[in-house]
């Protein structure tokens, strides 16, 4: 009886928490490409940590522009205070309640910064992990660069550093979440539409078709 009434009291608060899916995978694994499709089909808001950092870097008055520029070229992970506040601001500004947070948390510092700030205000649904060998990632990033991405880090020198960061810092974060059974792994080596078929079954499994409530 008591448990029932306590549950009744806290249920609305739990339900109102924004939902978050972390999207991880190597550079060029196809995170952004698949997120765009998830947005169209399931109504999530896509927030790419990399995109937010590039946007911040391009602000004429940004106090972090130069720092971000250096970190990106070196394939290093920007201190979490900067990235987390960009994500938090973007979540609040959207006025929405379902987010794909792409390219985050990318290292232990990201994870700890998130856990001590935003984590308590959101419901982490799962980690969508686009698993792709680095040889394929390399090919895709070089093609993206050749196709005019304009990114300062789609070149062999930066990519080598980004892959090292991915292996040494990001993979341990994925392994950490695997222990809590939160990781949904997708084989990202296949063509975009085939990859999306697997992505769709995961989101349909949550019963969130068309972006409705879950
Ligand atoms: P990420 O956000 O993980 O760095 P992107 O979504 O930007 O990756 O994709 C990197 C490049 O690879 C882009 O040029 C994109 O068009 C291409 N790409 C994405 N997914 C696939 C795929 N499944 N097969 C082939 N090329 C892909
Ligand atoms: O995800 P994306 O490939 O766009 O990230 C580009 C770069 O942005 C990373 O290599 C890194 O330098 C920076 N970044 C970061 N922290 C994150 C995400 C991206 O420092 N959480
Ligand atoms: Mg991306």
From TrEMBL:
Catalysis performed (reactions): CMP + ATP = CDP + ADP; UMP + ATP = UDP + ADP; dCMP + ATP = dCDP + ADP
Signal sequence bounds: none
Family matches, as Pfam families: ADK
Entry's Gene Ontology molecular function annotations: ATP binding; nucleoside monophosphate kinase activity
Keywords, in A-Z order: ATP-binding, Cytoplasm, Kinase, Nucleotide-binding, Nucleus, Pyrimidine biosynthesis, Transferase
Chain segments carrying region NMPbind: 48-78
Binding site residues for ATP: 28-33, 144, 190
Listed EC numbers: 2.7.4.14
Required co-factors: Mg(2+)
SUPFAM superfamilies with a match to the protein in the record: P-loop containing nucleoside triphosphate hydrolases
Binding site for CMP: 110
Main location: cytoplasm
Subcellular location(s) of the protein: Cytoplasm; Nucleus
Notes concerning its domains: Consists of three domains, a large central CORE domain and two small peripheral domains, NMPbind and LID, which undergo movements during catalysis. The LID domain closes over the site of phosphoryl transfer upon ATP binding. Assembling and dissambling the active center during each catalytic cycle provides an effective means to prevent ATP hydrolysis.
Name recorded for this polypeptide: UMP-CMP kinase
Source organism per UniProt: Phaedon cochleariae
């Amino acid at each position: 009886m008591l448990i029932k009434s306590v549950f009744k009291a806290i249920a609305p608060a739990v339900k109102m928490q924004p939902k978050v899916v972390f999207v991880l995978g190597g550079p060029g694994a196809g995170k952004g490409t698949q997120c765009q499709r998830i947005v169209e089909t399931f109504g999530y808001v896509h927030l790419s940590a990399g995109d937010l950092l590039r946007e911040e870097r391009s602000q004429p008055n940004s106090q972090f522009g130069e720092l971000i520029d250096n970190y990106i070229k070196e394939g290093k992970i920007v201190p979490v205070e900067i990235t987390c506040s960009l994500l938090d601001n973007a979540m609040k500004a959207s006025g929405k309640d379902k987010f794909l947070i792409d390219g985050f948390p990318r290292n232990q510092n990201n994870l700890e910064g998130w856990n001590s700030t935003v984590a308590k205000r959101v419901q982490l649904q799962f980690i969508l992990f686009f698993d792709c060998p680095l040889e394929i990632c390399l090919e895709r990033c070089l093609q993206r660069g050749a196709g005019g991405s304009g990114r300062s880090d789609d070149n062999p020198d930066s990519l080598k550093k980004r892959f090292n960061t991915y292996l040494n810092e990001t993979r341990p974060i994925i392994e950490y979440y695997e222990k809590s059974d939160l990781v949904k792994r997708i084989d990202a080596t296949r063509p975009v539409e085939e990859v999306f078929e697997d992505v769709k079954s995961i989101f349909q499994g949550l019963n969130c078709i068309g972006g409705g409530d879950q």
